[in-house]
From TrEMBL:
Domain of life: Bacteria
Recorded family membership: Belongs to the TRAFAC class translation factor GTPase superfamily. Classic translation factor GTPase family. IF-2 subfamily.
Biased composition (Low complexity): 107-128, 166-200, 300-313, 344-355
Alphabetical keyword list: Cytoplasm, GTP-binding, Initiation factor, Nucleotide-binding, Protein biosynthesis
Pfam family, one: EF-G_D2
Region of interest: Disordered: 72-408
Cellular component terms (Gene Ontology): cytosol
Organism: Leucothrix pacifica
Sites where the protein binds GTP: 509-516, 555-559, 609-612
PROSITE patterns documented for this protein: G_TR_2 (PS51722)
UniProt protein name: Translation initiation factor IF-2
Gene that encodes it: infB
Length: 1002
């Protein structure tokens, strides 16, 4: 038996502790304080005391008004997101509210007032009782405890209940006998019995006396159970009929009762009315409240009433439809249902006429949901159905649409989606757009003969084919062309006055032909002496003020690795000076410079340098150049030839005059106003200064503080320097400057433009970044597939992993191109990472993970990077000359080549006879005809010039003495290991195997 403290009970019922202690004391329950525990029996005694002290039991059980129960619960609901998204959790709070309407029982004369829509309410209960019941709020815990106690009390008082049941059964039998001759009873009495409204608690288990009440027939709304037989109407007990709670509710119930009355058979109603005067004799003695006067029966009725209320609350079925419950007959409590076998035969005569109506209204089996199909509730709320103890069904009055329409219909046709496909798209992104799994895309690609992974980038055409293969429609997406945006910005610059500008001259030629020395003489500086190895490895941009005007020079490297750098120089120039050494003539890079010049369509001036040398031959140079379409004016051509000497300065003045003459003929003009545009000549990363870019201004005036977009990088110019390192505030057309402040190092050759604001610059830069990333990713995927297929075809290929760091972007690009050209079918160079700037800890860590060699071109590693490299054994190599780096990589690749195995014949012996030797088998007596026969060398046995055996020379003797070698013209005995089939006339060939290292061709 569960116990609870007084303090806890006061919190549950909502009453003060002092009031509860006083009530316990009045009820005879001994407790010492609020912390004492009380049993279920004591709680029941307290409840009975409160009911008795409130005035009358009828007021306790039939209190007017309504009781509202509220309950709130919290739970979590998981909702799935869209395609490619995870699920999310939503907190759901459920609030339930249940209102129980109570009606007072009728007075003694209420049975005859059938025409009244609502009876007079009973006397109001005392205010103390109303407050007490309101505080209790029909608590769930007390209800359950009361139900358990009532059930146990029922067992203990079975004898009293049995006696009361027998007495009621006798009264019902007498009533049924008196009902038979009554045929002219007014039908309104049946209506009175039908208009009885019972609360949900009273429907479950009413008081014991209501078991003797009879109804003429079940209502049309009810589904009768097998045990629900129609009972005779007992009009002799008017006090037991409950009154409605209010007049409107009673009016609402009256039409339903009338409907039930019309559906009931007429003989039955007449019999019920005729039986009215005879039923008053067969009644059990009850008081004004409708309870038995016998104390034992009274306690049983009170317990049954409490049990019914507890059961109703325990089931927790709140009414969501805010309507009064339907009127229903009051069934007998469980304690009084034992003698029902005796009551059934008496009720059968009155119930027989109602059977046709029951059958007509009987519904088919409805299943658990209460309907022969999926229910769709119009107001969005659920419907619940409960069964009483006697099989009665209760349904809340929600409007239910029992149609067969579903909330979700299966699509009858496949869904065809229109998908916009950009220039490149990843497989996972394509799957998300098609609302399918990535595995389905890969499966479709494999069916098309294409191997792919979930992260592989697809080109636009392939993606459209895949979309159409899967039954959808692919649309070419309108690409956000950043170039068109830039073009629009250039068009919107406006019309400005065009003024003459200085020419931009690019000096090109073969390495060591004196390009930088010639420019050095023009600039009156010593640039060439400062170059590593005496060669130029960067584009040098300078401008020189001459008496006739300003000339801007671009000095390009002549090494073979700088092809792209020379091509950029030719595109950015107005005039090209081709420097050719008079003592060396036309060389490979000279030919390349001519091709770049012709493709750019710019004028060409040939400077024949080193004219001061004795072996100089200018005519030879002219002849060689004429073979490539460069013909001197002296020979009737269009190209200007000038003989110069970078050492003595001979011909330099004539060269400058020729440059200015050509520029005047070209009529070079540019605007000086408006936003500036230009070209990135070179870019590098300097410690403490960040990204430094050499920019050649082509249009407008570049000012410090401008927002600049250079390729995929952008930023505000923090500082501008000229070629001598002096800060300047602005630069006009054809002037090269160094710019600080960009977000990164742009690629050489990228266009430069001043933007209106940072937002536009950032948008275009991000678009270019994304395009570069997609292109790079696609190239990596293609390289991986090519590598995989090459491994499958040719076996394992040796790979040299290299991490490359350079000082400027142009040199880095030249190195990468040169190193990739060293790869062959057997060995390959893999550049795991490359960048501009010094070697950092991150570079060393990456090189350690990929087992790569770190090569720095004009850069060095910092202290922490050197420490980590020494600890992990990573090799750091520094270079200042580009061909030294390329040669080292070539030698490393040569070491990865498998050595070549070569065979060289050292001797030949002819078999003259065969004899047996002890322990050796057949011994061949031979005469050495060529070379030298050495013991231990591999041999071949030839018969008729056909090799029949390959083995090893095991024994070599001369005159029974073991010897190490036998020379030509000498006889000897040769024992071949594991071979005895030697015949006279055979030849034994002796040879050696030599491993020869292979090298890559230069």
């Amino acid at each position: 038996m569960s116990e609870i403290t007084v303090k806890k009970l006061s919190e549950i019922v909502g009453a003060p502790v002092e009031t509860l202690l006083q009530q316990m004391k009045d009820a005879g329950i001994h407790v010492n304080g609020a912390d004492d525990s009380i049993t279920d029996r004591q709680k029941l005694d307290l409840l009975e005391h409160i009911r008795q002290s409130s005035g009358s039991t009828e007021e306790t059980t039939a209190k007017t008004g309504k009781i509202t129960l509220k309950k709130r619960s919290n739970n979590e609901l998981k909702l799935s997101g869209g395609a490619g998204k995870g699920s999310r959790t939503v907190n759901v709070e459920v609030r339930r509210k249940k209102t129980i309407l109570r009606r007072n029982q009728n007075t003694a004369g209420a049975a005859q007032e059938t025409e009244a829509p609502a009876a007079e309410p009973a006397a109001p209960t005392s205010s103390s009782r109303t407050e007490e019941l309101a505080k209790q709020n029909e608590s769930e815990r007390i209800a359950r405890e009361q139900a358990v106690l009532a059930r146990r009390e029922k067992e203990s008082k079975a004898s009293e209940a049995k006696a009361a049941a027998e007495q009621k059964a006798a009264a019902e039998q007498a009533t049924s006998q008196a009902e038979t001759p009554a045929a002219d009873a007014p039908p309104k009495e049946a209506v009175t019995a039908k208009t009885e409204t019972v609360t949900p608690a009273e429907k479950e288990a009413p008081t014991p006396e209501k078991a003797t009440e009879a109804t003429p027939a079940p209502k049309a709304e009810e589904t009768p159970a097998p045990k629900q037989k129609a009972k005779p109407v007992e009009e002799a007990k008017p006090a037991k009929q409950e009154k409605p709670a209010s007049e409107p509710e009673a009016k609402a119930e009256t039409p339903k009762a009338d409907t039930a009355k019309t559906e009931t058979a007429q003989p039955e109603t007449k019999a019920a009315e005729a039986d009215k005067p005879t039923l008053t004799v067969n009644k059990t003695k009850v008081d004004d409240n409708g309870l038995p006067t016998d104390p034992k029966a009274r306690r049983a009725a009170v317990a049954a009433k409490a049990r019914a209320e507890a059961a109703a609350i325990f089931k927790k079925r709140p009414s969501r439809a805010k309507v009064a419950p339907k009127p229903a007959p009051a069934p007998a409590p469980a304690a009084e249902q034992k003698p029902k076998e005796a009551a059934k035969p008496a009720a059968k005569p009155a119930a027989t006429p109602a059977k046709p109506a029951e059958k007509a209204k009987k519904k088919p089996f409805q299943g658990r949901g209460g309907a022969p199909g999926p229910l769709h509730i119009k107001d969005g709320r659920g419907n619940r159905k409960q069964k009483g103890k006697r099989g009665q069904q209760r349904r809340q009055e929600n409007t239910v649409d029992q149609s067969t329409d579903h909330g979700f219909e299966m699509p009858t046709a496949p869904i065809v989606r229109e998908v916009e496909i950009p220039e490149t798209i990843v497989v996972s992104e394509l799957a998300q757009k098609l609302a399918v799994k990535g595995a389905d895309i890969i499966r479709a690609m494999m069916g098309m003969g294409v191997m792919a992974t979930i992260n592989q980038a697809l080109d636009q055409d392939t993606a459209i084919l895949i979309v159409e293969e899967m039954g959808h429609k692919g649309i070419v997406a309108k690409s956000q062309d950043e170039e068109s945006q830039v073009a629009d910005l250039i068009e919107n610059i406006g019309d400005y006055e065009q003024t003459s500008r200085p020419p931009v001259v690019t000096i090109m030629g073969h390495v060591d032909h004196g390009k930088t020395s010639l420019l050095d003489y023009i600039r009156a500086s010593r640039v060439a002496s400062g170059e590593a190895g005496g060669i130029t490895q960067h584009i040098g941009a300078y401008h020189v003020e001459t008496p006739n005007g300003i000339v801007s020079f671009l000095d390009t490297p002549g090494h073979a690795a700088f092809t792209a750098m020379r091509a950029r120089g030719a595109k950015a120039t107005d005039v090209v000076i081709l420097v050719v050494a008079a003592d060396d003539g036309v060389m490979p890079q000279t030919k390349e410079a001519i091709e770049h010049t012709r493709s750019s369509g710019v004028p060409l001036i040939v400077a024949i340098n080193k004219i001061d040398k004795p072996e100089a031959d200018p005519e030879k140079v002219k002849t060689e150049l004429s073979n490539f379409g460069v013909i001197s004016e002296d020979w009737g051509g269009e190209d200007i030839f000038v003989n110069v000497s970078a050492k003595t300065g001979q011909g330099v003045t004539e060269l400058l005059e020729s440059i200015l003459l050509v520029s005047e003929l070209l009529e070079l003009k540019a605007r000086t106003d408006g936003p500036a545009t230009g070209l990135v000549i070179e870019s590098r990363l300097e410690k403490g200064r960040g990204a430094v870019s050499t920019v050649l201004v082509q249009q407008g005036t570049l000012k410090r503080g401008d927002m600049v977009l250079a390729g995929s990088e952008y930023g505000r110019i923090r500082a501008m320097l000229d070629e001598n390192g002096k800060p300047i505030n602005e630069a006009g057309p054809s002037i090269p400057v160094e710019v600080l402040g960009l977000s990164g190092t742009p690629s050489a050759g990228e266009p430069v433009m001043v933007m209106e604001n940072e937002r536009k610059a950032r948008e275009i830069a991000e678009m270019r970044h994304n395009k570069e990333r997609e292109t790079r990713f696609a190239a990596q995927q293609a390289a991986k597939l090519d590598e995989m297929f090459s491994k499958m075809k040719d076996g394992e290929k040796s790979t040299l992993n290299i991490m490359l760091k350079a000082d400027v972007h142009g040199s880095l690009e030249a190195l990468k191109d040169s190193l990739r050209k060293l790869s062959t079918d057997e060995v390959a160079v893999k550049i795991v990472s490359s960048g501009v700037g010094g070697i950092s800890e991150t570079d060393v860590s990456l090189a350690q993970a990929s087992e790569a060699i770190i090569m720095g071109f004009n850069v060095r590693a910092d202290a922490s990077a050197r420490r980590i490299a020494s600890e992990s054994g990573i090799e750091l190599r520094y270079y200042s000359i580009i061909y030294e780096l390329i040669d080292d990589v070539r030698n490393a690749l040569s070491g990865l080549l498998k050595p070549e195995l070569r065979e060289e014949m050292t001797g030949l012996a002819e078999v003259k006879g065969v004899f047996k030797g002890s322990g050796f088998g057949a011994i061949a007596g031979c005469l050495v005809t060529e070379g030298v026969v050495k013991k231990g060398n591999p041999i071949r046995v030839l018969r008729d010039n056909v090799v029949i055996f390959e083995g090893e020379l095991e024994s070599l003797r001369r005159h029974q003495d073991d010897v190490q070698e036998v020379r030509m013209g000498t006889e000897c005995g040769i024992g071949v290991k594991n071979y005895d089939d030697v015949k006279e006339g055979d030849q034994i060939e002796i040879y050696t195997r030599t491993l020869i290292e292979r090298t890559l061709d230069k």
